[in-house]
Amino acid sequence: LRDPALREEKEVFLYPYVKALYWHRVAHELYKKGEFYKARKISQKWARKTGIEIHPGATIGKRFFIDHGMGVVVGETTVIGDDCILYQGVTLGGVGTGEHKVKRHPTLCNNVMISAGAKIIGDVTIGDNSIVGASSVVLKDVPPNCTVVGVPGKIVKENGIRVDKEL
Q1: Beta-carbon contacts of residue 99 (< 8 Å; ≥ 6 apart)
Q2: What percent of the chain clears pLDDT 90, i.e. is strictly above it?
Q3: pTM here?
Q4: What is the mean pLDDT of each run of 10 residues along the chain (167 residues)?
Q5: Cα-only R_g, the chain
Q6: How far apart are CA 20 and CA 147, in angstroms?
């Protein structure tokens, strides 16, 4: 329970991300069995109810948290590692290749935070312990232990040291 606004553990069941994540896990199991229509039907129902759209093909690790999740979009071939956090309006989007077997969405390694309104587009990897700042647009890989901000995203901190680097 990683939300500092949480006063009682049972409050977590009021959070839309809990419902979205639970039903994503159900839909993901159906998706893996090839029951694509059923999986999409579940994901679309809960996207309308929660404002959080997670494609049933997305793979999500442990202790995933979405804070203020309205407008979050997680694409089909997205992979999210353990202990990741997304804030409102985040898009983990794909590039339209027309190929269903091609990886076309981001991979978030472990302990990644994506701030409000950020867009990560394409088959890019965000390294362990990295942060993407609010409203940033990331189209290239981000190394571990970095902070990225801006449009297009630039590395402003690497291994705790301030830098100014292009991706």
Answers
A1: none
A2: 83
A3: 0.93
A4: 72 87 97 98 96 97 93 97 97 84 94 98 97 98 98 95 91
A5: 16
A6: 28
Q: What is the pLDDT of residues 126-139, one digit of tens each?
A: 999 999 999 999 99
CB atoms within 10 A of CB 167: 16
What CA–CA distances, in Å, run from 4 to 9, 17, 19?
11, 16, 19
DSSP 12: G
Round to whole Å and give the CA distance between 60 and 81: 6
Q: Rounded to the nearest 5 degrees, what angle is found at the Cα of 152, between the Cα atoms of 56 and 149?
A: 85
Q: What angle do CA 88, 79, 115 make, to 5 degrees?
A: 25
For CA atoms 93, 95, 97, 98, the dihedral sign is positive
Mark out the alpha helices in 16-161 (DSSP H runs).
16-32, 36-50
